[in-house]
UniProtKB/TrEMBL annotation:
Keywords: ATP-binding, DNA-binding, Nucleotide-binding, Phosphoprotein, Transcription, Transcription regulation
PANTHER family per record: RESPONSE REGULATOR HSFA, TRANSCRIPTIONAL REGULATORY PROTEIN
Annotated ranges, domain Response regulatory: 10-125
Pfam families per the UniProt record, alphabetical: AAA_lid_14, HTH_8, Response_reg, Sigma54_activat
Protein name: Sigma-54-dependent transcriptional response regulator
Species per Swiss-Prot/TrEMBL record: Citrifermentans bemidjiense (strain ATCC BAA-1014 / DSM 16622 / JCM 12645 / Bem) (Geobacter bemidjiensis)
Length: 473
């Protein structure tokens, strides 16, 4: 995590009245903002800002010696990234307009209303964190770098869209805001959730809960715990998973399946970081970072009245969508190699060599179960494998018969345009046709040099030679 992002949550309160400073600080602390610094001597502010980083300042306008009116332009010009909220006893429009013109983010009228203070600070922090993300994203766009590749070690990919997702996750790793991961089943959402936790550098635990099939009682009890005597059999008070995830990450999977009551509780947790243990009237605070995932289409669920609109918009803040495997075909050879190795290790066998046409065959399959399905297929093939080159039979058995390719109608120009293979062949081709086509294209590229064409196709010269002879016969 870089320095800029590490300090994005720090708040500075400036007022000459110590009592006001203490009250505001404890209100903000109670609202979950732990990092609050106070200063009652306005003449020390500029030197403090040159030494330490702050995301937000709440600045009293009327102070002896150096007033907030004088400080505001100095802060804005020397530290334009800081969001300044001015506090004024004077609710006249002109003062407020002047401060906003100078660059203030918001204003509060004294005596300060606690709710208004918390809302304004929260908004300012969000704006600051968005600005940080934008800056970092711009830097990433130009450098294509990853600062923490080790956080993604378990995710095998060479795909550009996936790499962009990794970069985005690095950018937002400095915030504690919730992240929502969408994508079809088996695309790796749980792996991404773990990577978000690894990136956060949090000392707390990573705790995962699949909420599918939990009714509201089970959801609340598992997540929030209960007080003693909350229901029959609750002999002891018990903490929920949210307590275990304190200072860490709580991953809630399958949130598209949550019932209405639990959705309301999740919304409260996301908005206020607050929850009630079952049977308790005392609100509790949580500092766990929430990562949520679903393979359902949430907008479709909203249309059907099964998912709350307000919860959906709350989830939209930081969101990543994982592409299905059929949209990242360049990952298939890498994943195949990876799963061959892990299956062989697990079964205590020598890693088999895959036939070169296997990757092509896999690339043509729809993979409704995505990477999980590929992993299972490869495991099964390695289990049945004895020696030498891996047999295609297991794959043909599943891909060719039990789970056929989706039927494609290439007769319309639109369909041909959508599927590049239809565009080339005029119909959806057989594997033999694809093989012939690829060999012909590779030979053209290699200007007839069989050794070079073999390298392009990932096969030896002799194998290519045999296939050319077969095609000619
Ligand atoms: N890029 C990848 N590299 C290596 N293994 C992967 C990759 N993506 C997914 N996997 C493996 O595929 C399986 C499914 O991944 P995961 O459980 O993260 O998917 P998911 O999207 O959370 O699925 P679901 O929606 O069904 O919960 C796991 O065994 C995981 O290790």
């Amino acid at each position: 995590m870089n320095k800029e992002m590490k300090y994005t949550q720090r708040i500075l309160l400036i007022d000459d009245e110590a009592q006001i400073l203490e009250t505001c600080r404890s209100c903000l602390n109670n609202a979950g903002h732990a990092d609050v610094v106070i200063e009652n001597d306005s003449s020390k502010v500029m030197s403090l800002l040159s030494r330490e980083e702050f995301a937000v300042i709440v600045l009293d306008l009327r102070m002896p010696n150096l007033s907030g009116f004088e400080l505001l332009p100095q802060i804005i010009s020397q530290h334009p990234q800081i969001k300044v909220i001015v506090a004024t006893a004077n609710n006249d429009v002109e003062t407020v307009v002047n401060c906003i013109k100078e660059g203030a983010f918001d204003y509060l009228v004294k005596p300060i209303d606690v709710k208004r203070l918390i809302t304004s600070v929260r908004k300012a922090l969000e704006m600051r964190s968005l600005a940080n993300e934008l800056t970092a994203l711009k830097q990433y766009m130009f450098t294509d770098r990853l600062d923490h590749p080790e956080a993604f070690r378990s995710i095998v990919t060479g795909n550009k869209a996936m790499r962009a997702i990794f970069q985005y996750l690095e950018v937002i790793s400095g915030t504690r805001q919730a992240v929502t991961i969408t994508g079809e089943t088996g695309t790796g959402k749980e792996l991404i959730a773990r990577a978000i936790h690894n990136l956060s550098g949090c000392s707390g635990e990573y705790v995962a809960l699949n909420v599918a099939g939990l009714d509201d009682n089970m959801f609340s009890d598992t997540l929030f715990g209960h007080r003693k005597g909350a229901f029959t059999g609750a002999d002891q008070a018990r903490d929920g998973l949210i307590t275990r995830a304190s200072g860490g990450t709580l991953f809630l999977d399958e949130i598209g399946d949550l019932n209405e009551m639990s959705q309301i509780k999740l919304l409260r947790l996301l908005q206020e970081q607050e929850y009630y243990p079952v049977g308790s009237d005392f609100i509790k605070k949580s500092d766990a970072r929430l990562v949520l995932a679903t393979n359902r289409d949430l907008q479709e669920l909203i249309k059907q009245g099964k998912f709350r609109n307000d919860l959906y918009y709350r989830l939209c803040g930081h969101r990543v969508h994982l592409p299905p495997l059929r949209d990242r075909l360049d990952d298939i050879p890498l994943l195949l190699e990876h799963f061959l190795g892990s299956a062989a290790d697990c079964l205590g066998k020598k890693k088999p060599t895959p036939p070169p046409e296997l990757a092509v065959m896999l690339a043509l399959y729809h993979f409704p179960g995505n990477i999980r399905e590929l992993e299972a297929l490869v495991f099964d093939a390695v289990l049945r494998h004895n020696s030498g080159i891996l047999s295609m039979e297991t794959f043909r058995g599943v891909i060719g018969h039990e789970r056929p390719l989706p039927t494609l109608d290439c007769s319309t120009p639109a369909a041909a345009g959508e599927n590049p293979l239809c565009g080339i062949f005029g119909h959806f081709p057989t594997l033999d046709e694809v093989e012939q086509y690829m060999i012909a294209e590779a030979m053209k590229l290699a200007k007839g040099n069989q050794g070079l064409a073999g390298k392009i196709l990932g096969m030896g010269r002799q194998t290519l030679n045999k296939r050319l002879k077969l095609q000619a016969s």
